[in-house]
Amino acid sequence: MGVIHVTDRAGQRHTLDAIEGWRVMEIIRDWGLPIEGLCGGACECATCHVFVAEEWMDKLFPPTEEEEDQLDTVVTKPSSRLSCQILWTPELDGLEVTLAPTGA
Amino acid sequence: MTDHIETDVVIIGAGPVGLFAVFELGLLDIKCHLIDILPKVGGQCAELYPEKPIYDIPGFPMVTGQGLVDNLMAQVEPFNPTFHLNEMVESLESIGTPEAPLFRVKTSENGTTFVCKSVIIAAGGGSFQPKKPPIDNIEAYEGTSVFYAVRKMEMFRNKKVLIVGGGDSALDWTVNLQPIAKRLTLLHRRDAFRAAPHTVEKMRSLVAAGDMDLHLGQVSALKGDNHVLEGAVIRKDDGSEHLVDCDVMLPFFGLTMKLGPIAEWGLNLHENLIPVDTEKFETNVPGIFAIGDINTYPGKLKLILSGFHEGALAAQKVHRYVYPEKKLLFQYTTSSTSLQKKLGVAA
């Protein structure tokens, strides 16, 4: 097993135990951090938007066209990803993400 | 004069769970009206994932979101429910007693008033509303310079309009408002658009002819005093920023779900969900029920199939409010001639 590091919207960094085969969104949600994940991981809502630390960007599978379409519905940075589309594997031990702000 | 409707039950939300409640109520001779903020029935199934396959609906190895909604519509057809689409329930007021509940329900858009004996809230994650981008101070401009929908095109005549987004709404309004705007700018995060190809092509030709501007990037700040927008700071992927001159900004970032007015109806809430019992799925207010994703109870699973079960049980209690004198006989659709008559399939 391993961990992921998640910085919440107040700037606090949390280290969470990760589970292989879980989506990063599910890990964050399971630990009770405020991530909405409205559509339940179907890549249909962009409410699990995170910023991935630069050094991790290349280690992830690139976003699908479907994920890009959803990212169109939020204010992104180059490091934007939907955490429901990142499947956690041991290669992602130590993954560093920041919860993106939510609109009103 | 606003419409006034008397009925047995008002169902708030016409998603799969609200639709199936119509069926369960119908079998018990209970009439209902459904209200939904979307212009179509089906809720999340129809709005968020119409094409996505669902694999955990009992009896359907695979059905799409829209397919499920279509089947449910066919299933409730014998009961002739009335739909009030494009309307949001604004207020829910108790005008009866705990023993004989009666409610007054009002919608916002054209102000329909309903008087009913029970209310079933099947509102899923709440009401669908335009997604507001997290830009500092954007609220200060809402309604004066920032709009999430176009109600009257004339409002934008001779204005410097900034449209943000890359979907159908953004592209449609780009080509529709370009002829009347003083100058139109479209801003999107990348040079790819998920809109109808001919609309994208039309936009590209307007850009090529110099009749409008296309920028790639994100709005990072808004400029202007006293709720009047003067410009938007655009940040590109490389971190560089520049100012776009505009009077009006129209962000089209799709829809999200918000609890909305439900929070003001005197119901107990727990983290934006409505606690219910698991016998009747009734809230803390007798006569108001909550079924589907919007409710919570120990062991709750947010599955469509749970919502179906919850609707069936809620209907049993609703029957006691609607027909206090009648004894409810439990029957099966396979064997009951009376149920089959209601379904229009009796031999």
Description of the structure:
The complex is a heterodimer of chains A (104) and B (347). Helices cover 17% and strands 23% of the residues of chain A. Chain A has 104 residues and is α+β, with helices and mostly antiparallel strands. In chain A, strand 1 and strand 2 form a beta hairpin. Chain A starts with a strand and ends in a 5-residue tail after the last strand. In chain B, 22% of the residues lie in helices and 26% in strands. In chain B, strands 1, 2, 5, 6, 7, 8 and 19 form a 7-stranded mixed β-sheet that branches. In chain B, strands 12-11-10-16 form a 4-stranded parallel β-sheet, covered by helices on one side. In chain B, helix 1 runs parallel beside helix 3, helix 1 packs parallel to helix 6 and helix 4 packs across helix 5. The model of chain B has no long low-confidence stretch (mean pLDDT 94). Chains A and B meet through helix 3 of A and loops of B.
Strand-helix topology:
The complex is a heterodimer of chains A (104) and B (347).
Chain A: E1 2-7, E2 13-18, H1 24-30, E3 49-52, H2 54-57, H3 65-71, E4 80-82, E5 95-99
Parallel strand pairs in A: 1-5
Antiparallel strand pairs in A: 1-2, 3-4, 3-5
Chain B: E1 4-12, H1 16-27, E2 32-35, H2 43-47, E3 53-54, E4 63-64, H3 65-76, E5 82-84, E6 89-94, E7 103-107, E8 113-121, E9 127-130, E10 160-164, H4 168-177, E11 183-188, H5 197-208, E12 213-216, E13 218-223, E14 231-235, E15 241-245, E16 248-251, E17 255-258, E18 274-275, E19 288-290, E20 295-296, H6 304-322, H7 337-342
Parallel strand pairs in B: 1-2, 1-8, 2-5, 8-19, 10-11, 10-16, 11-12, 18-20
Antiparallel strand pairs in B: 3-4, 6-7, 7-8, 9-17, 13-14, 14-15
